[in-house]
Amino acid sequence: MPRGYFITFEGLDGSGKTTQLRRLAASLTAAGHSVVTLRQPGGTALGDRIRGILLDSKSEAALGPISPLAELALMFADRAQSIAEVIEPALAAGSIVLCDRYTDSSEAYQGAGRELGSERVLALHAAVCDNLQPDLTILLLPGLTSSLYRARRRNTRAAQQNGADENRFEREGDPFYQRIHDAYETIAQRETQRVVAIRDEASIESIEARIKAIVDQRLALVAQV
């Protein structure tokens, strides 16, 4: 059985990546592909516990300040578990794996946002993830201001509706997010074969069509090998 195909979605919170992942999953499934979706942090029982610690804005009130290095280590603990439990088995079974965030997020958020540096993040990726790289990364980079507005509005609405609180990162100031945005641009320039960046503020449907065309082209090339 041919090995599956690993696609990640990256971008700031509020960039629309989760919406686009869901739409692509539906399209690929309708076309007859076996599709597995997950998010990071999360996607496994252990990962969901880690997600609660990392994203809940009440975590630090209960646990004390989470150091940047502890945050990074927890991100990779989640990633290692999802690779072992979900990603590798799905790829071995020939499925297309769609993952909402992966190591690029750690390089952007912890490496740049927390100022730990890319080298430390990439070294952890090599050691903890056996350097497993996505076949394709869709990077959504609309304007910084609009992304943050949408993310903060979404999380406030979720907290009001069901008590969910994933605002820990959204409490950070604009300089933190500017460093993340710049880091994503650097990754896109470095990883030109893997990363496809979409930077405009087009409609959801327009971006969906662009992503579908990109993925269809990549899958067609794989089928020819």
Short précis:
This protein has 225 residues and is of the alpha/beta class.
Total count of domains: 1
Strand tally is: 5
Would you identify the CATH architecture?
3-Layer(aba) Sandwich
CATH topology: Rossmann fold
Under CATH, the homologous superfamily reads: P-loop containing nucleotide triphosphate hydrolases
What would the principal axes of the Cα set say about the shape?
globular
Helicity, in percent?
Answer: 55-70%
Please report which band the strand proportion falls in: under 5%, 5-15%, 15-25%, 25-35%, 35-45% or over 45%.
5-15%
Q: What sequence of helices (H) and strands (E) makes up the elements?
A: EHEHHHEHHEHHEH
Total helices: the number is 9
CATH class term = Alpha Beta
Which regions have little confidence, pLDDT < 50, spanning 5+ residues? none
The side-by-side strand order for the widest beta sheet comes to: 2-3-1-4-5
User: Would you tell me the overall average pLDDT?
Assistant: 91
- Give the structural class: alpha/beta
The profile of the biggest β sheet is:
5 strands, parallel
C-alpha Rg (nearest Å)? 17 Å
Span between termini: 14 Å
List the defining traits of the structure above.
single chain, 225 residues, alpha/beta, Rossmann fold, 5-stranded parallel β-sheet
What can you see in these coordinates?
By secondary structure, the chain is α/β, with parallel strands linked by helices. The protein has a single domain (5-224), classed as Rossmann fold (3-Layer(aba) Sandwich), CATH 3.40.50. Helices cover 60% and strands 12% of the residues. It is built from nine helices and five strands. It has helices spanning 17-30, 45-55, 59-63, 68-92, 103-113, 118-128, 144-162, 174-190, 204-224; strands at 5-11, 35-39, 96-100, 136-140, 195-198. Strands 2-3-1-4-5 form a five-stranded parallel β-sheet, sandwiched between helices. Helix 2 (45-55) runs antiparallel to helix 4 and helix 5 runs antiparallel to helix 6. It is globular and about 50 Å long.
